[in-house]
Amino acid sequence: MHGSMDLNLANQRALVTAASGGIGLAAAEALCREGATVLITSSDAVNITEAAQEIRGRLSDAAIDAFVLDLRDPESIAAGVAHAVEELGGLDILITNHGGPPNRSLEETDPQTLDDWYGQIIRSTAMLCRHALPALRDGGGTITHLVGASARQPRADAIVGAMLRPGLFGLSKALSREEGPHGIRSNCVAPRGISSDRITSKLRDRAEREGTSVAEVEAHRTAAIPLGRFGTPDEFARAVAFISSPAASYITGTVLAVDGGWSAML
Known about the structure:
CATH class of the largest domain: Alpha Beta
Number of strands: 7
Order of helices and strands: EHEHEHEHEHEHHHE
CATH architecture of the largest domain: 3-Layer(aba) Sandwich
CATH topology of the largest domain: Rossmann fold
Shape: globular
Largest sheet: 7 strands, parallel
Strand order of the largest sheet: 3-2-1-4-5-6-7
Low-confidence stretches: none
Distance between the termini: 32 Å
CATH superfamily of the largest domain: NAD(P)-binding Rossmann-like Domain
Mean pLDDT: 92
Oligomer: single chain
Number of domains: 2
Helix content: 40-55%
Strand content: 5-15%
């Protein structure tokens, strides 16, 4: 059941990156549901066009459009943000998202992999913000970074994410101080245990590796979550919509965990 929270998002203009599926798409849909005008991006033209159609199929009055932006390419980022500002007539909300790096140990991680993911995670986010700042300053906009909650508690065999994701916490907190005087807010929303195709395939892989059932692997995963279940993409997306909205006007520089209490266990 989707209830409207009246977050005063009507007429707000939002850009959401890496939004062809998963939490990025869910966040874009939540913003549309609250009345925002949304542009979603991905490096894959077919996927991102289909994603926008999917949201229009569920929300007939959704003001959503799609375009191609490659987070690995600084020129594509500059052009993409300029396109968004022009298309929307300004920008109130920037939601930064990125793909998930491969789960590998340090031994398996070569310099090229590190450079690639530094580009996709850290550099892309910094450049998205840098190019969006002039438009966001006009009226005091918000930046919301979607950053996996494991940034706080890195796991073994996921060295790239463990190294780079905490950098987004640093970027967001520094931006909240730098841009606070301009009325810009910057926060992170940290998901963990949100059900998605990615989690489903990870559960399947692990069940195969360990010769057990998907249900058993899932039970093991959810045992570490105080609420005892995975969250839905919609539950995550509503938190993103809230913190990105005028309803959260005095919240900045924070990391909001949307993880069923997983990080409370640390």
